[in-house]
Design a protein that fits this description.
By secondary structure, the protein is α/β, with parallel strands linked by helices. The protein is 17% helix and 20% strand. The protein is built from 5 helices and 12 strands. The chain has helices at 62-65, 113-118, 126-136, 176-185, 207-214, and strands at 4-6, 12-13, 55-60, 69-73, 81-83, 104-105, 107-111, 123-124, 143-148, 173-174, 188-192, 218-221. A 6-stranded mixed beta sheet has the order 1-5-12-11-9-7, covered by helices on one side. Strands 2-6 form a two-stranded parallel ribbon. Strands 3-4 form a two-stranded antiparallel ribbon. It is globular and about 60 Å long. Mean pLDDT is 85; it is low at 1-26.
Length: 225
Amino acid sequence: RSALGAGLAGIAVAAGAAAPGLARADRRTVRFREIVDLTHTAFPTFPNFFGLTMTVTPILTVEEDGVFVNRLELPEHFGTHWDSPAHFVAGAPTAEQIPAERLIAPLAVIDISERAAKDPDAVVLPDDIRRWERRHGRLRRGSFLAMYSGWEARLPTDAFLNPDASGTYHFPGWGLEAAQFLLAERDFVGLGVDTHGIDPGHDATFPVHIETFSAGKHGLENIAQ
């Protein structure tokens, strides 16, 4: 059992995707116009909350064994990864308990990069979502919402976590008001970020994780956009 499906699993997003939670007879065929890789290539020192590293150990080689096999050791929440509700909520669904159809969703990208360039603690606000809807129409049922802050440009350095002198991180995330607005007013499956956490880095109480995961939503972190 796992709190997440690491970058090997991921989440698929596409226009025309079926809205998760609909009766099977109501689901629509998914038609992909293009496929975009939203994952970062993992590397041993990928910045992460825990300061842990990835280890790659050769086990078998083509030259000696006729097959190439490595052993990978890495923390779950490393690189581009998917959070199940169990990551923050005891007794909530773990990765294998989430229906596959909830991992196919219409995608809405909320761009706060202009604000984030000036304020590392910037968060997605309800007005950012309303602004997106004025341009693109109301969020479709079962949407997955991803924040774009431009933060990935700071990889591979520690500026990605952006710690201050006290060790507190400063990077953008989802604001609690935006999450509460979505929970109350819209139907969605999860939230994503191009930073290391759905919550902004300075908030170690993780309110957005807790409220959305308590409602059965999931998250995708360190998205490459």
